[in-house]
Amino acid sequence: MVQTYLIVISGPSGVGKATLTHELLNRRSDLVLSVSATTRNPRPGEKNGRDYWFLSKEEFEQRIKENYFVEWALVHGNYYGTPEPPIRQQLKQGKNVILEIDVQGGCNVKKIFRDQSILFFILPPVFEELFNRLKKRGSETLEEIEHRLQTAHLELLRQDEYDYTIINDDIERAVFQLMDILDRRLSNSHGKKSEH
Ligand code: 5GP
Q1: Residue 41 carries which DSSP code?
Q2: What pLDDT digit, counting tens, does each position of 112-127 carry?
Q3: 189 pLDDT exceeds 80?
Q4: Residue 178 sits in a domain of what CATH number?
């Protein structure tokens, strides 16, 4: 049987996790994305079931009681969690599952899945640049941006618990590094899409 993995991508808000994840999904056919559940409001353009499962606080808390999540955390005042049944099924079907989650979640995944997890911590080249990126994105108020930057500083303290640190100074280079590690770690490049 093929060994499959949970691949965790963490790092501060605005560092480019979504773009990197998207690039990885384009390049390896054996990767799928875990859709998390959250109680935060959808941003413009976000779709239920594609970007997140958007739940009420009551629904989320009910699922915590039912042990529906592999891990869950309070991030910036909202609940976020990784649903367990889909990822167990995908791993069984020979897929490697990408989780774009915060550092609390990543460390909990490591505790449960140990050698079956590969953790990547994504860093900006210069920390101050995050502020500009978040401001440009325009989906948070200045107060929310402040809060996210404070969280980012706290998360940095736990980067040693991650397997790899990637600096996203150039998207192509960061993708290349990630792919290189994944090609070595995931069953002999099985699943790599051919390039035309
Ligand atoms: P955003 O609201 O910007 O989409 O996400 C905020 C933070 O929550 C990000 O750091 C993101 O990685 C994290 N996050 C998203 N889904 C999950 C999840 O299922 N579990 C945990 N622990 N964090 C998550």
Answers
A1: P
A2: 999 999 999 999 988 7
A3: no
A4: 3.40.50.300
Q: Read off the pLDDT of residues 17-57 as tens digits, 9 standing for 90 and up.
A: 999 999 999 999 999 999 999 999 999 999 999 999 999 99
Residue nearest to atom 16 of ligand 1 (CA): 101
Å from CA of 26 to ligand 1 middle: 21
The three-state (H, E, C) secondary structure of 172-183, written as one string: HHHHHHHHHHHH
Specify the residue with its C-alpha closest to ligand 1, atom 21: 101
Range of the domain at 69: 6-187
pTM of the model: 0.92
For the CA atoms of 30, 36, 42, 45, the dihedral, rounded to the nearest 10 degrees, stands at 0
Mutate to test the pocket of ligand 1, among 19, 22, 34, 75 (most ligand atoms within 8 A of CB): 75
Cα separation, 9 vs 91, in Å, equals 17
Asked whether residue 1 is domain-assigned, the answer is no
